[in-house]
Design goal:
Number of strands: 2
Number of helices: 2
Low-confidence stretches: none
Keywords: Membrane, Transmembrane, Transmembrane helix
Number of domains: 1
Distance between the termini: 53 Å
Length: about 60
């Protein structure tokens, strides 16, 4: 465990900025219809693999 309060002031401010930015949700818009975030991307990948497994079982 790092004792962050002993770090130089510049590093502490950088850490605060990183923590603040990491709490924001990052998303892109697909065709102004669908907002894609990490969570929706994960859902799309899971659904794609489910369809792939279904197709593999049918052949």
């Amino acid at each position: 465990m790092t004792n962050w309060y002993y770090l130089p002031d510049k590093i502490i401010l950088d850490l605060i900025l990183i923590i603040a930015r990491s709490s924001m949700v990052v998303h892109i818009t697909a065709g102004k219809l669908v907002h894609m975030s990490v969570y929706t991307f994960g859902d799309v990948v899971k659904t794609g693999f489910a369809y792939l497994n279904l197709l593999r079982q049918m052949t």
